[in-house]
Amino acid sequence: MQKQFSLLPKIAALSVMAACAAPAMAQTAGSNIVNLGWFHLMPQDSSETLRKNDGPGAGPIPGSGATITNADTLGFAFTHFFTDNFALTTDLGIPPTFKLNGTGTLAGVGEIGKAKQWSPAVVAKWYFGDGNSKFRPFVGAGVSYVWYDSIELSNGFQQTISSKYSGGAVATAKSSAKLSSSWAPVFNIGATYNFDKNWSVALSVSYLPLKTNADITTELPAAAGGTTHSSTSLTINPIVSFLSVGYKF
C-alpha cells in the first residue's frame, strides 16, 4: 500500500506533462479566427508643393508643405486557414482621423485640415511551424483599397489661401478639398501566440506604399478671380501595427 501511494505523485506529474504535450489544435486547416485589437498608424510622409492651377498668380506656392499625424483606431480581423500554414486575412477598422499640419511657408497655419481614412485589406499569410505550435511567426502580402471622407479644411488654412489667391483682397473665401482613392499593396510580418485551442494574442506590422492627390476648390468673388483650383500630392506610406486578441471557432 505504501508503495502504491508513493507512485501517485509520479503518475500525477506524468499526467501534467502529457496534458502540456497534447496538441493544441489552435491553427489548422479549416480554422476560423476572429481578432479584435488596436491599430496604430504611423505615416512616413512627404508632400509636394501646393500649386494654384488657374487664375491670377497661378503656379506653385513657394516653400509650402504638409505633414500627417499618427492615428489610432479599433481594428477587426477575420482569418481562415486553408491549410495548416496558408491563411487569408481580412482586416477592417473604425476609420481613423488623420490631421494634416502645415510646414514650410504654411507652418504658421498649424492644422490645415483632417480626414477619415478607410482602408480595408485582404492579406495572404504563410504561418511557420505546424498547426499545433503555440508560437507561430508569419509573413504576408496583400492589397488594400483606400478612400477618404469627412474631409475638412481648417478656418486658418482657408483664410490663408483666400488672402494669397486674392492678393490680400479677400480673407474669408470658402474652400473645400477632395482626396483621391487608390489601391495599395500591403506587406505584412508578425507572430501569434496560442494560449490554448481557442484563445491567442497576435502582433503584426504592415507597410503600405500609398500616395493620394489633393484637389482644393476656392470660391473667390468674380472681382478677385472667381473660383480657383489648387492641388498637391501627399505620400503617406504608413507603417501599421496591430496588437490583438484572437478567438478560434
TrEMBL record:
Residues 1-26 form the signal peptide. The keyword Zinc-finger does not apply. The keyword Transport does not apply. It comes from the Bacteria. InterPro entries: OMP/PagP_B-barrel (IPR011250), OMPW (IPR005618). Pfam families: OmpW (PF03922). Keywords: Signal. It is found in: Cell outer membrane. This is OmpW family protein. It comes from Herbaspirillum chlorophenolicum.
